[in-house]
Amino acid sequence: MRTALMLGRRGQGRAWPNPAVGCVIVRAGRVVGRGWTAPGGRPHAEARALAQAGTAARGATAYVTLEPCAHHGQTPPCAEALIKAGIARVVAPFDDNDPRVSGRGFSMLRAAGIAVDTGVMADEAGRDLGGFLCRNEQGRPEITLKLATSFDGRIATAGGQSRWITGEAARRAVHGLRARHDAVMVGAGTARADDPSLTVRGMGAAQQPVRVVVSRHLGIPLMSQLARSARETPVWLCHGTDADPALIEAWEGVGARLLPCAVTERQLDIGSVAQALGAAGLTRVFCEGGGALAASLLGAGLVDRLVGFTAGLAIGAEGLPGIGALGVARLDEAPRFALERVAPVGGDAMHVWRRV
């Protein structure tokens, strides 16, 4: 199962809206087939592993990181394929929470006389497939907030200088994280100030994440890097229903996808943004700021994971904070996260936290 989970991670950022599943087929103590969800979500992991195993699948055990699907979509059900291949036993962590599957895959297998064991490495699988599970349960993608800050939590000097607070190794690690997510998201302020490309570079990435900008009034220059490259690499703009129709038309003209979202008195409803991204098929979103967007997500309880890169320098109180105002008056009101791991990355420290 550990190998199947490792294989499944190869599909992260490429398989959406489907889950990034891994599958290993073992017969007589020997691996005869391996597979993971292909880019775009098809073929599924089980189909690829069965194709590799061929006739050796008969009487074998299939280790799969999610319940095999049981519904007819663009491809036949994986449960049906496992039955036809003569698999004798299936091992999986838990049921698929997609209502089209949810227990039906396991029922099909058991009805065909196949032994089914569940509960194996369920915690690890839950972390890997958290985005898919979250979208099914809550209608939104899993959101990771990344912050690269000084030791005192600043992302820029008072004059706006931010390149580079962290070192080259940390920046490379960020590109690796981008590659494992369906989308990279920033706020309009970051898009204006940094004119970022938000692409994966230096990793040999064959598929780029969607670039998402949250901007109520579409206040992003039409000569920005994002606008100039929108036809080559997807750009999605989450905007208010009160945005200027002329700007909507202009952005559509350069190839961007426009996602209208509800507004509150002063800003976009960040919950509406998350739901719009989920409805569009995204399961894993990597947010890179800025401070106002980070505060909105944290305040709404929409951050599932924090990834921090902390550098060994201090900028001081006049610097720009990594997170905007949250209105927290008491410590028990503050969003709380549990530490998963800490690791040195070059001359910086990376720390990963999960929502309690």
Automatic annotation (TrEMBL):
Keywords: Hydrolase, Metal-binding, Multifunctional enzyme, NADP, Oxidoreductase, Riboflavin biosynthesis, Zinc. The active site is at residue 46. The keyword Metal-binding applies. CDD domains: Riboflavin_deaminase-reductase. NADP(+) binds at residues 148, 164, 190, 194, 290-296. One of its GO terms (molecular function) is 5-amino-6-(5-phosphoribosylamino)uracil reductase activity. Substrate binds at residues 162, 178, 198, 201, 288. Its EC number is 3.5.4.26, 1.1.1.193. Binds 1 zinc ion. SUPFAM superfamilies: Cytidine deaminase-like (SSF53927), Dihydrofolate reductase-like (SSF53597). Pathway: Cofactor biosynthesis; riboflavin biosynthesis; 5-amino-6-(D-ribitylamino)uracil from GTP: step 3/4; Cofactor biosynthesis; riboflavin biosynthesis; 5-amino-6-(D-ribitylamino)uracil from GTP: step 2/4. Its cofactor is Zn(2+). Residues 1-117 form the CMP/dCMP-type deaminase domain. Zn(2+) binds at residues 44, 69, 78. GO terms for biological process: riboflavin biosynthetic process. It catalyses: 2,5-diamino-6-hydroxy-4-(5-phosphoribosylamino)-pyrimidine + H2O + H(+) = 5-amino-6-(5-phospho-D-ribosylamino)uracil + NH4(+); 5-amino-6-(5-phospho-D-ribitylamino)uracil + NADP(+) = 5-amino-6-(5-phospho-D-ribosylamino)uracil + NADPH + H(+). Gene3D superfamilies: Cytidine Deaminase, domain 2, Dihydrofolate Reductase, subunit A. Pfam families: dCMP_cyt_deam_1, RibD_C. InterPro entries: APOBEC/CMP_deaminase_Zn-bd, CMP_dCMP_dom, Cytidine_deaminase-like, DHFR-like_dom_sf, Eubact_RibD, RibD_C, RibDG_C, Riboflavin_Biosynth_HTPR. Converts 2,5-diamino-6-(ribosylamino)-4(3h)-pyrimidinone 5'-phosphate into 5-amino-6-(ribosylamino)-2,4(1h,3h)-pyrimidinedione 5'-phosphate. In the N-terminal section; belongs to the cytidine and deoxycytidylate deaminase family. This is Riboflavin biosynthesis protein RibD. The gene is ribD.
